[in-house]
């Protein structure tokens, strides 16, 4: 039965007046039903828009959160606030580590000082003295690393504060360490090489991107990281930590750069005196390994007269 037929049956037996009254009442009921239907549809539409909007905002919010979180998370492969390089006789490789989480603390690197010379450098790429030291000694020290005789741990800091060239350069190195850690030493060398000819205020972000790319690191993620100062907060925090104390060393705190530490002992000689540095290296490495100046051992496996306890001859190693 159609609605019209149903309505017609309602009028059967009614007077004209009653039929008119019933018609008005049915019309009122239909109007109210139509109004309710429209309100219901409008509510559904509003809810749908809100849901879509929340989803969209959620995506944007997550992107924003991720970006903010990145600024408070340290770079990968620098859990100690530094990046460590070791060698196998022909190749220099960066040690890989997790990142320092927001609110976390760095974990000092642990290396066997009895087998390799452990070199730690705190560097500010805006400091002229860094170029002085690296020009005189950098190639030789990195050669020791490649040969497997030493390790180098680079700690970029920015004593000029947030926004300084030292901070931007340290961020650039962190961006490389985070994505392509093995390339960080090459970029370090490029930053050192650029130091004597820096313009006033240092290189800007685009110039740093160009420097890194000219060094062979063309990953766009790294370029974006440099432009966005992704690890600037970490640079500030790492500098503050170094200025509060230096782990595994005889140095109370970082006061000036470059700071060079060999097997836990700070080098205090002239930065461009290669002979003084070599003598210092010999001294600290001999102390760590138990060797004497004539190449014999004093660690209990031999005697200072060049023979072992069973009378056989000791041949000093190179």
From TrEMBL:
Residue stretches spanning the membrane? 43-65
Q: Which residues form the Thioredoxin-like fold domain?
A: 122-279
Keywords for this protein: Membrane, Transmembrane, Transmembrane helix
Q: Which InterPro entries match?
A: Thioredoxin-like_fold, Thioredoxin-like_sf
Q: Ranges of Low complexity compositional bias?
A: 290-312
Extract the Gene3D superfamilies matched here.
Glutaredoxin (3.40.30.10)
Is Transmembrane one of the keywords UniProt gives this record?
yes
* A Pfam family hit: Thioredoxin_4
Q: Does the record bear Cell division in its keywords?
A: no
Question: Region (Disordered) spans which residues?
Answer: 290-318
Q: What is this protein called?
A: Thioredoxin-like fold domain-containing protein
The record lists the lineage as: Bacteria, Bacillati, Actinomycetota, Actinomycetes, Micrococcales
């Amino acid at each position: 039965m159609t609605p019209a037929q149903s309505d017609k049956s309602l009028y059967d037996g009614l007077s004209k007046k009653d039929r008119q009254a019933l018609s008005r009442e049915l019309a009122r009921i239909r109007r109210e039903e139509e109004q309710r239907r429209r309100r219901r549809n409008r509510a559904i539409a509003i809810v749908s828009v809100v849901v879509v909007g929340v989803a969209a905002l959620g995506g944007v919010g997550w992107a924003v959160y991720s970006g903010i979180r990145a600024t408070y998370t340290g770079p990968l492969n620098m859990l100690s606030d530094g990046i460590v390089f070791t060698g196998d006789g022909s190749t220099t490789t960066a040690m890989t580590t997790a990142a320092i989480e927001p609110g976390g603390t760095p974990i000092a690197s642990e290396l066997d000082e009895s087998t390799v010379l452990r070199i730690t450098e705190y560097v500010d790429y805006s400091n002229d003295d860094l170029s002085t030291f690296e020009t005189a000694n950098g190639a030789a020290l990195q050669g020791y690393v490649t040969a497997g005789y030493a390790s180098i741990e680079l700690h970029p800091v920015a004593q000029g504060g947030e926004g300084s060239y030292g901070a931007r350069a340290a961020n650039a190195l962190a961006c490389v360490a985070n994505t392509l850690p093995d390339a960080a030493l090459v970029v370090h060398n490029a930053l050192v090489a650029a130091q004597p000819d820096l313009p006033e205020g240092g290189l800007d972000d685009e110039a740093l991107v160009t420097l890194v790319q000219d060094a062979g690191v063309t990953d766009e993620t790294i370029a974006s990281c440099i432009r966005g100062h992704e690890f600037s907060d970490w640079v500030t925090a790492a500098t503050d930590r170094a200025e509060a104390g230096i782990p595994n060393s005889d140095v109370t705190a970082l006061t000036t750069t470059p700071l060079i530490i060999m097997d836990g002992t700070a080098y205090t000689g002239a930065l461009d005196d290669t002979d003084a540095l070599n003598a210092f290296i010999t001294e600290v490495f001999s102390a760590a390994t138990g060797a004497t100046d004539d190449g014999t051992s004093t660690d209990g496996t031999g005697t200072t007269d060049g023979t072992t306890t069973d009378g056989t001859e000791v041949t000093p190693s190179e």
